[in-house]
Amino acid sequence: MELEDVPGVGAKTAERLRELDEPVETLRRGDVAAVASLPGISTGRAARIVRGAIRARHDDPGGFLATDRAREVSDAVLGLLQERAVTTHAKRRLATLYPTASASRIAEVSAFAERAREREIDPAVLDALADVSPVERPGDVTVRDRCLATADAETYREAQAAFPELSVEVVEDARGLADLARGYASVVALDEAFAGVAVEGDVTVDPRAVEHPEEHVPERTLAFFATNRASLRAAAAVHRRAGVEAPIELDTLEDALDDLAADGSVAGDEELGRLSTAVDDLDAAVSTAESVANDALRGAIEERDVTIEGADLLSLVERGAGVDSLLSRELADEYAAAIGAAREHVADALALRDDEIEIATRIFGDEPTYPVERREEAVSRLREELVAERDRRAAKRKRDLAGRLADLRAGATDLVRDALELDVELAVARFCEEYDCTAAERAGTGFEIEGGRSPLLDVAFDEVEPVDYGVDGVALLSGVNSGGKTSTLDLVAVVVVLAHMGLPVPAESARVPAVEELHYHAKSQGTLDAGAFESTLRDFAALAGGADAKCVLVDELESITEPGASAKIVAGILEALHGAGATGVFVSHLAGEIRGAADYDVDVDGIRAVGLEGGELVVERSPEKDLLARSTPELIVEKLAGESDDPGFYEDLLEKFGADGT
Ligand SMILES: Nc1ncnc2c1ncn2[C@@H]1O[C@H](COP(=O)(O)OP(=O)(O)OP(=O)(O)O)[C@@H](O)[C@H]1O
What is the CATH number of domain 1-57? Predict the structure, then answer.
């Protein structure tokens, strides 16, 4: 399939889609989230594009939902499915389910739904899913202490493309390489010609570096895992909890993730932690050590009476010598103790190793001075040593960890994808369980629903009374006000929509016709003006004339114009649909008149009121075949006739109801 073959995808959108790693595969998978991640493509548009791709794959012309109300019902059903998904990704994926006439698409979704229904619904899995989100690309990584070097222009271009994280330098010869090695902690030479060239510094030669860039940029692998750490952990938890097979060894992944900090550095390495802290705390530790020594020395001097011989005093004054010599003579021991304490402080505070202590010792000299001062060059030397050791260790640990993680990358992506897919399946499983669904049969004309319960009703689902209803061809449905006629149409629409999505339906059993279009006309809000009336008539003319198999549900069409005219118009529409072999239900309060005006024997079904209880109608929700149900006014007149001491007036009225059959 070419991207441009997808309905709604023009050259510009196709170009956008090509920014995805595998655009065609992404569309095939129905990955709305991936499509929506592209700049300028909204979630709604992404869902339409993916649906378009599905349609292209199934050669499906679309257009199943032929009216606003049909679309509303479909959206409402989808909303109920989406409510049961935990992740945004799954909600978006569910938006690719749509009713269709394509048998192959319906079969595809049915197979998926069957698998989904086998999933066990475990709240702990749903909890774990909350932290799973699609794998993201890490932000741009820049590595400054490493560079690549080549003398060749072509290699230079290749390396720039393969290593966006590193700078690539052009060098003429070994001298150029040596210059680079002074400026960077490590240099990778890309030309065979540099093999064997002796250059000081961390220089390696790897002419095949572009073939395995991750080895030279472990940061790339680490950034991927650091960015997706939370989601990967959650996806692993989902797999564990759900007991589903994972595409990678979960322990291995989790152990490796334990060693990775959120910023992509290596975590949990004590030695690296020690070195990093030592570098950070070096200045502070040396300052404190100075204070330690000076405080000790000041104390010692203050406590001491110094006797000085005249000759010495003269020598001091004449030579302008400092008191240092006096210090060394009089307080040599105290000085040694103070310096010892300072050195010990540095070693302890920074947790230095023996070889580092050796360098640290030189920070404070043995020659007595007061006040005691650090030797800056010794401090710098120690800092360089610690920084070099820290960087060496970090680089090695990074390489090791990246090596462990690199092999897990493809599996990790699949792990997250599988967890998200499980969310889609669990949403379908929950929908089916919570609405007691069964697979519907699509065959014949007319429909047969047993124990159907509409999830769109305004009452709690467990209070919905199951409805049995079936029609052959096109029937009229009569019934008292608020008897449940509209709700019955909704139920039929829900069942037809779900069955054509390929999903189970909320009924004990159901057969619906395989149709190409669902036309559901909601009750109009009152008499239409001439223009609107004309266009409604045109719609029905087109509907009655088309050759496609249809399901037509119409709620009280009579209210569009005067009752007398309405009955004739509806009768005419019924005749045309009957002739076209359509399946349909027309709810009407004028069922008697319509039947009278039609030129064939129209089936009239009725929702029967079994009585009035405390002013409330008690109805039998399942329509009865071949019943012209009595209207609410008739029921009230009948009730009054029964209750009145002088029922004459009411009985006359009742006779009139009987006379015109309504
Ligand atoms: N199967 C059912 N189970 C429980 N309650 C129902 C059922 N069907 C309908 N109802 C309740 O009855 C109310 C009225 O239903 P509905 O609007 O379908 O009646 P109607 O016959 O179309 O009314 P009208 O003639 O006024 O258009 C619903 O809002 C709902 O509360």
Answer: 1.10.150
